[in-house]
Design a protein that fits this description.
Layout lengths: L3 H6 L3 E5 L4 E3 L7 E7 L1 E7 L5 E8 L3 E2 L1 H6 L6 E4 L3 E7 H10 L1 H27 L2 H15 L4 E2 L2 E2 L5 H8 L3 H13 L4 E3 L2 E3 L1
Helix pairs in contact: 3-4, 4-5, 5-6, 6-7
């Protein structure tokens, strides 16, 4: 997203987080821009029944949590390290100055936010109207494009756990497991050593 040289020039610091560490909490006001150097981050919250809903999963090179930062609104979800992670943290004031002085970076940020908004719109329609098989394939196909899943001789390795697929599509993990097996029988997915490929 923003180059290392540029983000450091504007005063970003690198911070390490352990797996399951909270990066920011739902309900807090945003103070900084976050960009992942390494690791995986999820933004999620819980419904009244205590069920987790994942708003998004973010990987190396991606940023997260910008909409509330631009709107000066409280975070609608928690950001948690899915695995050990290193993140650039840039104070809001410095981030805004960086955008003002670097229009090409501003365009990239807008494109990134538009991509996320598009994904949310597509998935909202999927969750409300489509069958589990369709939801799972839509999520996986979006992941291949947006998350740059790696391709090898078996196809694209899908880096979502069954639980994450459930949390991203509004399905129970048991339904996800049955759905993936059904899609394998139809030749839409492959399961090799418990890993899912498209």
């Amino acid at each position: 997203m923003i180059t290392v040289e540029l983000i450091e020039k504007y005063g970003a610091i690198k911070k390490s987080f352990d797996k399951n560490d909270l990066i920011f909490e739902e309900g807090n006001l945003p103070l900084s821009y976050y960009q992942i150097v390494s690791g995986e981050i999820k933004m999620s919250n819980y419904n009244d029944d205590g069920r987790e809903f994942i708003q998004g999963i973010f990987y190396s090179g991606q940023s997260f949590g910008e909409p509330p930062l631009f709107l000066n609104q409280k975070y609608p979800a928690n950001a948690i390290a899915v695995e050990n992670a290193v993140i650039f943290i840039l104070p809001k004031k410095n981030f805004m100055k960086l955008l003002e002085e670097n229009p090409k970076v501003s365009i990239k940020i807008i494109e990134n936010l538009a991509q996320r908004l598009y994904y949310k719109s597509v998935m909202a329609a999927e969750i409300s109207t489509q069958e589990p098989e369709h939801r799972v394939l839509k999520l996986i196909d979006h992941g291949i494009v947006y998350f740059n899943f790696q391709k090898d001789k078996n196809g694209f390795l899908i880096n979502f756990t069954r639980q994450q697929i459930g949390d991203l599509t509004g399905l129970r993990v048991e339904t996800v497991i049955r759905t993936i097996k059904a899609l394998e029988k139809k030749g839409e997915l492959k399961i090799i050593n418990r890993k899912v490929y498209r």
